[in-house]
Design brief:
Blueprint lengths: L1 E5 L2 E5 L1 H20 L5 E6 L5 H13 L3 E7 H12 L7 E9 L4 E9 L2 E10 L4 H7 L10 H25 L9 E5 L6 H10 L14 H11 L10 E5 L4 E5 L3 E6 L4 E2 L1 E9 L7 E7 L9 E8 L10 E8 L5 E7 L4 E6 L9 H13 L1 H28 L2 H6 L2 H19 L6 H19 L5
Parallel strand pairs: 3-4, 5-8, 7-9
Antiparallel strand pairs: 1-2, 5-6, 6-7, 9-12, 10-11, 10-14, 13-16, 14-15, 16-17, 17-18
Helix pairs in contact: 1-2, 3-7, 5-6, 9-11, 9-12, 11-12
Length: about 450
């Protein structure tokens, strides 16, 4: 909650209420200009807004009395505005790089425009970087003269961070910078000469596109998207945006099972995957995450839900899980047990437990930093899962009368001793080296093959 003092009283306001006040003011300005009521709106957001921030934006629109038809990423809207403006000049396929540096946010996107299709290839950015940071670097509030050289010197690390994000976006799009046809500047801070110089140098001297007003580009594209929803004589187009972060669920061993990789084109009607139950379970907890780390718990937990009340199922029994994302980037996850038809689903809206954009950025940086560690963790998790399954398989086999009757007491003691050691390893897996685990797994599998599996006559 945001605490403000108004007319001598202390008021608590949520972010949606503050946003709705801005939207209400915008609606009033539009109604005054158009001399008619305004009900429908397309609202733009930073590309790195997560799904709860998008949902909150839709709620803010509702509070302001607006019907939010669609949420569009700001660089996408800018490219849309630029593409419609230049449509007559575009022949074939054009790759547009949008550099959007505003007062408080920074987004970059790569879009391919072909005929009536605007397809986002990749997006990157930081919703806590912009002109305000350049202001803060100048010190305290006093009157002084500052040279351009000094301004560039005290902000150079931020400028370089912007260029690193540009490079990262190209890498995600699997595109060489030489394949970029146009570089479009958006946002007031994109007017900074040093930013323009670094950007032009990065793209090997390519002229930057300044034909569209950087302060109006986003609104221009959003207006085009709104008009195309139901007005005649307005160009029709198809807009394809992408997910900013990978989405998935946790599986055995705290491993992140990526269902929708980052920079996947949306909307996504349904991507089917599955979870498996442990032995004789009649309910399953499904945890949904976003992020790029291999260990699920190192990512951001979006939400959890349970699928219950189905007959106790054997280990490995699959349950269908479906991920869907609508055109506004809102995620819905559902699960179904086929034998009973039991279903449950969750739409991710739990704002308070979500990360800020800055924390999301740090998660991605951590993912890159700990890439080697994550690979090591994944290998260890795979061995632990295999060891756990081998123990389960042997224990189940020992319950069978025909197996028990033909195993000697000596072999039985040997197997039980090995299972006890394996169980100790599984309980304290963080302190056991992967080679030790592999060795014990090999020993257990050998016992299973030589002692438990019936010999062929």
């Amino acid at each position: 909650m945001i605490i403000v003092k108004y007319k001598g009283q202390e008021k608590k306001l949520c972010a949606e209420e503050i946003s709705s006040m801005v939207l209400t003011k915008m609606r009033e300005i539009a109604e005054k200009y158009l001399e008619s009521p305004v009900k429908n709106a397309v609202v733009t957001v930073p590309a790195y807004f997560n799904d709860s921030q998008r949902k909150a934006t839709i709620d803010a629109g509702a509070i302001a009395g607006l019907n939010v038809i669609r949420i569009i990423n700001e660089p996408t809207a800018a490219a849309l505005g630029y593409g419609l403006d230049k449509r007559s000049d575009c022949v074939g396929e054009n790759n547009i790089f949008v550099f959007d540096l505003g007062g408080g946010t920074f987004d970059v996107s790569i879009l391919t425009i072909k005929d009536k299709i605007f397809e986002v290839k990749a997006t990157a950015g930081n919703t806590h970087l912009g002109g305000e940071d350049f202001d803060n670097r100048m010190g305290i509030d006093f009157f002084s003269t500052i040279t351009r050289a000094k301004f560039e010197e005290i902000n150079m690390d931020i400028f370089k961070e912007c260029m690193e994000t540009v490079e990262s976006c190209l890498t995600d799009a699997n595109m060489n910078k030489s394949a970029v046809n146009d570089v479009v500047l958006v946002g007031g801070s994109s007017r900074i000469p040093k930013v323009q110089q670094l950007l032009q140098e990065f793209f090997n001297g390519k002229d930057l596109c300044m034909s569209i007003n950087p302060d109006e580009a986003v609104a221009y594209g959003a207006a085009a998207a709104l008009l195309s929803e139901g007005f005649k004589n307005v160009p029709n187009f198809v807009l394809r945006d992408v997910t900013p972060l990978s989405l998935g669920k946790s599986i055995i061993g705290d491993v992140m099972n990526v269902v929708i990789p980052k920079n996947t084109c949306i909307p996504i009607k349904m991507i089917k995957t599955f979870v498996t139950v442990e032995d004789n379970q009649s309910s399953v907890l499904i945890n949904v995450y976003e992020g790029e780390r291999t260990r699920a718990s190192d990512n951001n937990l979006l939400g959890s839900f349970s699928l219950c009340n189905f007959p106790p199922a054997p280990r490995g029994h699959p349950l269908d899980v479906c991920f869907s994302i609508d055109e506004n980037g809102i995620l819905t996850v559902s699960a179904k047990e086929n034998s009973t038809g039991n279903m449950n689903e969750i739409t991710i809206t739990n704002y308070k437990e979500r990360l800020s954009a800055e924390e999301i950025k740090k998660l991605i940086e951590k993912a890159e930093k700990y890439n080697v560690e994550d690979k090591k963790f994944l290998k260890k998790a795979e061995v632990l899962n295999a060891l756990d399954y081998c123990v389960y398989k042997i224990r189940n086999s020992l319950k069978q009368t025909d197996v028990n009757s033909r195993i000697s007491s000596q072999d039985n003691d040997k197997i039980n001793s090995a299972i006890t050691i394996a169980s100790d390893f599984l309980d304290s897996n963080q302190h056991v080296e992967i080679d030790v685990l592999k060795g014990h797994l090999k020993e257990l599998e050998s016992m299973f093959e030589s002692i438990i599996i019936p010999k062929k006559k």
